[in-house]
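ok trying again, last paste got cut off:
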Amino acid sequence: MESLSEASREALYLLITGDPDLWTIIGISFSVSLRAILAAAPFALLFAFVLAYFSFPGRRLLVSLFNTALSIPAVVVGLTLYMLLSRAGPLGDLRLLFTQEAMIIGQMVLCFPILVAMGHSALQATDRRAWETALTLGAPTWRAMLTVIHETRFGLTAALLAGFGRIVAEVGSSMMLGGNILNHTRNIPTAIALETSRGSFAQGIALGLVLLLLALALNLGLARVQGRGEVIP
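nice, full thing came through this time. structure:
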């Protein structure tokens, strides 16, 4: 217990004093995950809109596949992309393995099904008359889509928060694709795994506290968004 209390005190000290190694890891983690969610969101939400508002053969199958993809382990995504990006793989010439770009690709793959599935559910729950009215009034398709997205902004924001929460804490894909390189690809989850394996708990506890605070912030934000989206009779 004494060693745990000492490690906890040291962890707080590292956070408060702005330890450069610690905050570099935090900065890399947030930078990679934010870029991944911003890159994936437009395509995912567009795909969700198509699934919700257009009928075509195989639509229900696609919805089922995306719902199933929600449970794909991060390490499976990492292994698949590792084989593709390795030197012997078909994309090896791109030399992306063990870079932040590879980590971003992995996190995009992980958050894409979440954004599509949750975005689809939110869009389906919206009154279709907003879409039909906009088209009837002569609005172009893209303008009608923006109208529907505005009506569904609370549900779509919830999807974005859930997707970001999923990827910022994943370790399997980032470890395999980034290589856990100090000051380059070492993010919060991979650093926690490394420090714990070394028996050095102070930095791991500090980074764990950052993830806990982030989880709290995301949940408070999600509750606020859901509260704003409720219809009060």
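cool. The CA atoms of residues 84 and 91 lie 5 Å apart. The radius of gyration is 21 Å.
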